[in-house]
Amino acid sequence: MTQEPGELESLVRQRIRALRLAQGWSLEELAARARISQSTLSRIENGRRRLALDQLVTLARALETSLDQLVETDTDDVVTNPMIDAAHGQLRWPVKAEPGVTVVRQRMTDPPPDNPSRMRAHPGREWLVVLSGTAILLLGDRRFRIETNQAAEFPTMLPHAIGAEGGPCELLGIFDRDARRGHQRGKDAEQDTGKADRPSP
Question: E strands along 102-150, which residues?
């Protein structure tokens, strides 16, 4: 999205004020952190002082952000449609700001495996929340019951498996690149094993 200079300036001023308020800082506090006068900061926020690059750099640092984020204008792709993974019964969304991170929504009906050899371990980290129903997470030699609106986060180097308890459950999971690859390889291997086990027609 192309913005006129005046629109960009206005956006940056709004963002500075919003970030300051989100931190719970007064004008005086941010001015002290940025080593500028309180009146200068007030004029910057209110549009009565021209924005200078050196001040933006200083303010970005004081607000614990980057200059790129302070002046970012790319908001064209706000809405994302899911990729449908019919083979695995999932909806997947990439996270644009964090390449490699994927959000997955999945409905589970089967209980977790009772055979430890079916638990997977691979590099990465996973976070999940139960949207409905109850899930059982097997993690190493421990068993966790995760109910609706509860979440779990764990390193996927621990052998793990998950399933439903007492009926279907729906999960929303966030996987980093390594965890996503590990799960994909695991599911593909299970499918190949299932095909090999089926008798030939």
Answer: 102-108, 125-132, 134-139, 142-147
